[in-house]
Predict the 3D structure of the following.
Amino acid sequence: MKPGRRLPRAFFARPSTDVAPDLLGRVLVRALPDGTRLSARIVETEAYGEGDPASHSYRGRTPRTEVMFGPPGRLYVYFTYGMHFCMNVVVGRDGEGAAVLLRAAEPLEGLPAMAERRGTDRARLLCSGPARLAQAFGIERAANGADLVRGRDLWLLEGAPLRPEAIVRTARVGVRVGVERPWRYLVRGDPFVSPGRPARVTD
DNA sequence: CGTTGGATTGGCT
DNA sequence: GCCAATCCAACGC
C-alpha cells in the first residue's frame, strides 16, 4: 500500500459524519523529536458535531473546547478519567464545533517505540482504543491545536480509503447521551478495532 | 467554592 | 463482569 500524499485542508472542511468514515484506511504519521517515525492505519473513528449532546462542543465554546471551534485540520486533545489523553481531528467550518475521535489503528512503523510507551509488545494492544492510540503516539496536552495539514510533527497521509461495503457503522462507545446516533465507524472484521462495546449496534 | 462524573483502561473476582 | 485509578472541566450555589 502506497501511503500517498498528505490529506489537504479541504478534506477536513466537511461534516464530521462525512470525514469520520473517510478517515478509515488513512495513515497517521508522527515524527518524534529523536527522529523516530511512527505510523498507523486508522481502523476506527467516531463523529461528534453541532447539536450533538455527546459532543464536548455541545455547551458552546470553553477553554477546553476552543480548538474544536477553530479551523479544520487541527488536532483536538482532551484529558479524561484523570489519566488518559484522546485525540480528535477538528472538522467542519471555522467557528463550528465538530471533530472526529480517532479510536483505533493498526501499527505500521515505529512499533518498538510504541511498545515502550504502552508497556506491552502485543501489536493488538498498541493502538486499539482512543487512549492507547494517543499514548502510543506520545500525544499529550502539548499537541492540542497542532496543525495536521502543515505541521512537521504529526500529519495524515491518503493511504487507501475503504469501500462503503467494508465499513461498519455502530453506536458510539462510552457515551450516555446521543447514543441513538450511529456515528462510530470501523473497518469490517479488522483485528485492530478497539474492544470498546457500543450501547446499541446497528450493523 | 464544592460537587460530580467523564468520548478509558487494566487488573482482579 | 466489576471497579479503582486519578485529575479536572463544567456547573450549581
User: Anything to note?
Assistant: The CA atoms of residues 38 and 110 of chain A lie 5 Å apart. The beta strands of chain A are 27-31, 37-48, 75-80, 84-90, 99-109, 154-157, 167-170, 184-187. The domain at 9-187 of chain A is CATH 3.10.300.10 (3-methyladenine DNA Glycosylase; Chain A).
